[in-house]
């Protein structure tokens, strides 16, 4: 099966088009004010409508309360919601059931214990995204983690790899981990929050040829 590619932190119709033209299957819309990639719910809804079924829209929320979660999903109508904070398996399952959309959970890979904890999400989410641990922000850190932590792990649900992926290292990352989906944000930017169409293209080419 061909590799799936998520370009995260898009904020303009031009970069949504660039990602889709390059072969991205998913694009991420970050609704988290401290992030340089933050978009309002109205902006996110417009970008989702702009993509019009050409790629799956992934709405990112971080420890959002129930009211914001409901308003965000109702306004944006994403294909997928990605939780990127300390959301529990039970909360993920509840949102999945009530909203009737895919739910992904990002986990910051510190050590083997993170993988053990990931088992709690089986049956509760549609995909796990293994990312680097939080720094100043919970995601979009631009840092890789030790991919060796995933070696030999028997994945029982869909998953993806994130954290510091770029055109230069994505092929190696796929080769080492066998990731079925790769996700990038800062690796395709010219400055924090500013996506670069050339880098998006280079990333998708490198991922597709791995
Ligand atoms: O990208 C952000 O600014 C962000 C902020 C808060 C929560 C999540 C965020 N991004 C989530 C993603 O899915 C990123 O693509 C992922 O963390 C990888 O980012 P990067 O290391 O910059 O490629």
TrEMBL record:
Enzymatic reactions: N-(5-phospho-beta-D-ribosyl)anthranilate = 1-(2-carboxyphenylamino)-1-deoxy-D-ribulose 5-phosphate
UniProt-listed Enzyme Commission number(s): 5.3.1.24
Domain N-(5'phosphoribosyl) anthranilate isomerase (PRAI): 5-205
GO MF term list: phosphoribosylanthranilate isomerase activity
Keyword annotations of the record: Amino-acid biosynthesis, Aromatic amino acid biosynthesis, Isomerase, Tryptophan biosynthesis
Coiled coil residues, start to end: none
Pathway info: Amino-acid biosynthesis; L-tryptophan biosynthesis; L-tryptophan from chorismate: step 3/5
Gene3D superfamilies in the record: Aldolase class I
InterPro entries in the record: Aldolase_TIM, PRAI_dom, RibuloseP-bd_barrel, TrpF_fam
Domain of life of the native organism: Bacteria
EC main group: isomerase
UniProt keyword annotation of Iron present: no
Family membership noted in the UniProt record: Belongs to the TrpF family.
Protein name (database record): N-(5'-phosphoribosyl)anthranilate isomerase
The organism of origin for this protein: Altererythrobacter litoralis
Organism lineage string: Bacteria, Pseudomonadati, Pseudomonadota, Alphaproteobacteria, Sphingomonadales
Gene that produces this protein: trpF
